[in-house]
Design brief:
The complex is a heterotrimer of chains A (299), B (409) and C (314).
Chain A lengths: L26 H31 L20 H8 L1 H34 L7 H8 L9 H11 L5 H26 L2 H9 L4 H12 L1 H17 L2 H6 L8 H6 L9 H22 L15
Helix pairs in contact in A: 1-12, 2-12, 3-6, 3-9, 4-6, 6-9, 7-8, 9-12
Chain B lengths: L1 H19 L6 E7 L9 H13 L2 E7 L1 H13 L6 E5 L3 H6 L7 H4 L8 H5 L2 E2 L2 E2 L1 E8 L1 E5 H6 L9 H11 L7 E4 L3 H14 L16 H15 L14 H9 L3 E6 L2 H9 L5 E4 L9 E10 L6 H12 L2 H8 L12 H6 L5 H5 L4 E2 L7 H17 L4 H15 L3
Parallel strand pairs in B: 1-2, 1-3, 8-9, 11-12
Antiparallel strand pairs in B: 3-11, 4-5, 6-11, 7-9, 7-10
Helix pairs in contact in B: 2-13, 9-10, 9-17, 11-12, 17-18
Chain C lengths: L21 H33 L6 H6 L8 H8 L1 H32 L6 H13 L2 H12 L5 H8 L16 H26 L3 H9 L4 H12 L1 H16 L3 H6 L11 H10 L4 H30 L2
The chains are: A mainly alpha (299), B alpha/beta (409), C mainly alpha (314).
Chain lengths: 299, 409, 314
């Protein structure tokens, strides 16, 4: 080994023969089918979101029009204006942001180390431990509300954002550790061994070789934590009482009334709540391409 | 001389201090349902300011969305915490009172009991003790589409069951896709059904605890309403799924259904949904007697509150005579007796008047601890089964047995 | 992507060299796992134990307030078994779980295979397909409910326009379709997560393996089954377990669309537990159902993972 850089895993260097395709379908047709499939999936996934946007833009008297029209006849941005002008939306968004950022950073940091240790090392409990942690997720969360509430009250952490952090972590971590363990177990042992032979300490091998390899996994885990914290509703609605500590999902549920719901506002709120996450993911998603198969995807 | 000045300054300061803050200034935590505090300038804030200025207490207001109110109260109260004063849907009072979570306010409320309308007040009374005072009240009336009624050749909104049925059938036209009446399914449908059961002369659960659901009158009432769907097809298919008021309203807004049974909360939804809708609101048609179902919110005090005296002051303040003015700002109805006088009714917006006019026929749902369960499990199923063509007498007989079991009789 | 090995010996003498040999090397995996364990155990143990013990005590609003919750043995379970809704809910849970897990895993895998290569505009498709997962659950469910609505639902309108049905149908109000209508929403919502996991896993499959498979002439299903799946089996197993757990504990979809109705036609054990707990205020019965669900999940996942591990031969 060169001692300076490790570019490709040893097992990957041998094959450089150009692929030989026996498939008889012409390339353009296969690409065509691929894009067709992508569009079908895209429309299926995005249509309800489109419907939210359309509903948020419709005038109130068009909401109940029959038959419903695919494209709104009249556009109004009133719901968005109403939401964005008030101070509440921004305060809720800030709370959500603080909460999501802290929970994401902490869970990724903790689950990366724990997942790595579990994937790489056999130690007492390395098999049973992740399973035990996961067991905690299997009890319906809604029935844990009261004991959680009692616990938080005893600690004096009710009605605070920092009180939610451990609750969320306990909910996110088992899954994150599991996911990270799975991704790390896919990174070949040989890589780390090679780095160690080069004189890296465990920490250096982990930090400089393994971590970059596992980047797609880390992005996936971070996305999972981010989305679930950003949208978490049940715990937040029970443990947050005062207006100043509310998060976005709580603000949204406030728009659902006992007798009638302001659909325009609710849908506009849903769109505004989803947008930042989609934007973040749009920039994150290119890091899903990395690691061992890094070169392959560009072929 | 200097000494004298010094003393008197202190005395003056003391007097001033006492004047500004009474001896017992308490902080009261108050939970209200979301719509009452939907914006920073909601009327309740000014009202609380006035209360604070008058009494020296401070009030910490927390608005809870209706959807989470019941669960959050349950969790908080079970966890030994919760607010000092809470707004409760009137149907929740019995369950919480039975568990000993609400303070008994009978002593304080008895002297002023006749200031309230008897129906709403009785919704806060459980086993002869008062646990909650009515904050606002509502009831359901009949909404009629004037144009559809006229086109069906009928010149006045129905006043009796027969006229009601005739109108519903007359407005139904398969080819035009119109129906006589839009109605809810499951729990919402059951809520709309209660007035008909009472109008037939039957009781759901009488004051002495007797279950009246299996009686011939009750069976007749359920059959009368469900026949409109199963027999006459006078309801749109949305009745099978409409579990929210928006879904119930939709066919009426679209002018596909000529009648709607709903409370004052529908007015805003209808006007938003179809500004051109021409409708009138009239009291519910009468069966053997007039009856409508009461809804609304109550205020109750946490049994474990440290500031129960101040809490009572707040409850009395918010539900008292000032509530007429306060609730008018929300386009809601106060439950004060003074709000139901002819002059007071005349001052109400025209849309609200029919509701107050029939308020005397308003009945509270049975105040029994297991009401939530009876309403959702038993009556929700009764109505859903009836709509799907199951024999009403069997359904009702079974419901009666179930209710008796639930009540532990 | 690239890592520089240390250029001189000094770098090796960092604090972490303590863990290179001897006792340090033995305890360091534990140290790495410790924070996760402390948080999870510290936060979850009390609620979990309390939740399970509630199943064997008389826990209602009344007893909670008085603080005296007598031990009742298996009485809560007996009462649950005596409820006719329990049988229906158990059966529905089975249907619900099987449909969701199978559909989400296969669709998720299909999407991941579609999306894993670099093509023009792939970021756009990836982000778009993630949309269902990003939309706040409450809003998503209410949107679907509105789309299904028999008065103004766009689903009905489109199906009528395409000639699939003659008239608007109350999908959520028909006892024959309610559970499946909710399932469609839940599959829509859950698939992107599976897609993302498998997409990340696919990125870790060495290029050489994919190409070797192509060279052997293995195409289509055979390549998928014999080459790709074995490579991502760990992630696939994890995705299966997580989908399973999340489906069993998916509450919003059913509760906000049908509340388990009409006439229990879409009742699953979770919604039943919720009704016991938060409509009847009987946490004893609710916890009995929850405990059964819990035990079922624990057994099922443990068995499944043992099976996977046996196959792996680890």
């Amino acid at each position: 080994m060169s001692g300076n850089t490790i570019t490709t895993p040893p097992s990957d260097t041998a094959v450089t023969v150009p692929p030989l395709r026996r498939s008889w379908t012409p390339k353009w047709l296969r690409i065509g089918f691929l894009y067709l499939g992508l569009w079908v999936a895209f429309i299926w996934c995005v249509f309800p979101f489109y419907w939210m946007i359309a509903t948020s833009l419709r005038a109130k008297d068009e909401l109940f029009a029959r038959p419903p029209s695919l494209v709104p006849h009249s556009f109004t941005f009133q719901s968005y204006v109403d939401l964005l002008v008030g101070a509440e939306f921004w305060r809720y968004a800030l709370n959500s942001l603080i909460l999501t950022a802290s929970v994401t950073v902490i869970s990724v940091a903790i689950s990366v180390t724990a997942g790595y240790a579990m994937a790489r090392h056999r130690f007492k409990g390395s098999v049973a431990l992740p399973l035990f942690m996961l067991y905690g997720q299997m009890f319906p969360p809604v029935l844990l509300l009261i004991p959680f509430y009692i616990q938080l009250r005893w600690l004096g952490w009710l009605d605070s954002l920092y009180g939610l952090i451990p609750v969320y972590l306990s909910y996110m971590l088992p899954l994150c550790v599991w996911l990270m363990r799975g991704f790390f177990s896919q990174v070949p042992h040989s890589l780390e061994d090679a780095a160690r032979l080069d004189g890296c300490t465990r920490w250096q091998a982990f930090w400089r070789v393994i971590l970059p390899m596992a980047r797609p996994g880390i992005v996936a885990v971070a996305t999972w934590v981010m989305i679930h914290t950003w949208n978490e509703f049940l715990y937040a609605s029970t443990f947050i009482l005062s207006d100043k500590n509310r998060t976005l999902p709580l603000g949204l549920s406030g728009l659902i009334g006992q007798y009638t719901t302001d659909w325009g506002m609710l849908m506009a709120g849903g769109v505004l709540t989803s947008a930042p996450i989609l934007l973040v993911f749009f920039f994150l998603q290119k890091h899903l391409v990395s690691g061992v198969g890094g070169g392959a995807v560009k072929g | 001389m200097r000494h004298f000045w010094k003393t008197s300054t202190i005395a003056a300061a003391l007097v001033a201090a006492l004047g500004a803050t009474p001896a017992f200034a308490d902080n009261i935590v108050l939970w209200v349902n979301g719509p009452l505090a939907s914006a920073p300038d909601a009327p309740i804030y000014a009202e609380l300011k006035a209360f604070e200025a008058e009494t020296g207490h401070t009030v910490e207001l927390q608005a809870v969305p209706h959807m989470e109110m019941e669960r959050n109260l349950f969790v908080a109260l079970s966890g030994g915490a919760g607010p000092d004063v809470m707004a409760l849907d009137i149907a929740w009072v019995a369950g919480l009172a039975d568990a000993g979570l609400l303070a008994d306010v009978t002593e304080q409320s008895d002297p002023i009991a006749d200031e309230y309308q008897p129906g709403p007040l009785s919704a806060g009374r459980f086993k002869q003790r008062q646990y909650a005072m009515p904050l606002y009240t509502n009831n359901v009336a009949l909404y009629v589409n004037n144009k559809m009624l006229a086109e069906a050749g009928i010149d006045a909104p129905p006043k009796t069951w027969d006229e009601f049925e005739a109108a519903a059938i007359a407005m139904t036209d398969k080819n035009a896709g119109t129906f006589g009446l839009t109605f809810g399914g499951s729990r919402v449908g059951a809520f709309q059904l209660y007035p008909f059961i009472w109008q037939s002369g039957a009781e759901i659960i009488a004051d002495d605890g007797a279950v009246g659901v299996g009686s011939p009158e009750a069976i007749e009432a359920v059959k009368f309403v469900s026949d409109l769907y199963t027999e006459h097809q006078a309801m749109p298919a949305s009745v099978l799924t409409a579990n929210s008021w928006d879904e119930v309203n939709a066919p009426f807004i679209q002018e596909r259904a000529g009648m709607l049974i709903s409370g004052d909360w529908a007015i805003g939804a209808l006007n938003n949904g179809n500004p051109d809708l021409d409708y009138s609101i009239v009291p519910l048609p009468e069966g053997a007697q007039a009856a409508t179902v009461i809804g609304g919110y109550n205020l109750a005090i946490n049994a474990n509150s440290d500031v129960s005296e101040a809490s009572w002051e707040l409850v009395e303040w918010l539900t008292g005579p000032r509530s007429i003015e306060l609730m008018a700002q929300y386009q809601r109805l106060s439950a004060q007796a003074a709000a139901a006088t002819d002059e007071a009714i005349a001052k109400l917006p025209e849309d609200l008047q029919p509701f107050m006019t029939q308020a005397s026929a308003g009945r509270a749902r049975p105040v029994v601890a297991q009401w939530s369960q009876i309403h959702s499990d038993v009556f929700g199923s009764v109505w859903d089964s009836a709509l799907r063509g199951q024999p009403i007498d069997e359904v009702m007989a079974q419901a009666a047995t179930q209710i008796e079991q639930i009540l532990g009789q | 992507m690239t890592a520089r090995a240390p250029t001189n010996q000094k770098l090796r003498r960092t604090w972490s060299s303590v863990f290179e040999t001897g006792a340090g090397a033995r305890i360091y995996p534990y140290l790495m796992v410790l924070p996760a364990v402390i948080i999870v155990v510290g936060v979850v143990v009390y609620p979990l134990v309390s939740g399970i013990t509630s199943a064997f005590h008389d826990v209602t609003l009344r007893t909670l307030n008085s603080g005296d919750m007598p031990f009742v043995g298996l009485r809560n379970f007996e009462r649950v078994f005596a409820d006719p809704s329990f049988g229906i809910a158990s059966f529905n849970t089975l249907v619900w779980v099987v449909l969701n897990v199978v559909a989400q895993l296969s669709l998720g895998l299909g999407l991941a295979l579609l999306l894993h290569r670099a093509m023009p505009g792939i970021g756009f498709f990836r982000s778009g397909i993630l949309v269902p997962w990003v939309v706040p659950s409450v809003v998503a469910v209410l949107t679907w409910r509105w789309m299904y609505d028999p008065s103004v639902g766009i689903v009905n309108e489109l199906l009528v326009r395409w000639g699939v049905i003659n008239d608007y149908h109350p999908w959520l109000g028909d006892t024959a379709t309610s559970l499946y209508a909710v399932t469609v929403e839940s599959i829509w919502k859950g698939t992107p997560f599976v897609m993302l996991l498998l997409l990340a896993a696919l990125q870790l499959v060495p290029r050489s393996i994919m190409e070797a498979a192509s060279m052997d002439g293995a195409s289509g299903w055979r390549k998928l089954w014999h080459v790709i799946l074995p490579q991502i089996r760990v992630s696939f197993a994890i995705a299966a377990v997580l989908t399973f757990i999340l489906t069993v504990n998916n509450f919003n979809a059913i509760w906000l669309m049908t509340e388990g109705g009409p006439l229990n036609s879409s009742e699953i054990l979770f919604t039943l537990a919720y009704k016991y707990g938060f409509q009847r205020y009987d946490l004893g019965m609710a916890s009995a159902v929850a405990t059964m669900l819990f035990v079922g999940l624990v057994i099922a996942t443990t068995l499944y993972l043992k099976l996977i591990q046996a196959k792996e031969g680890e």
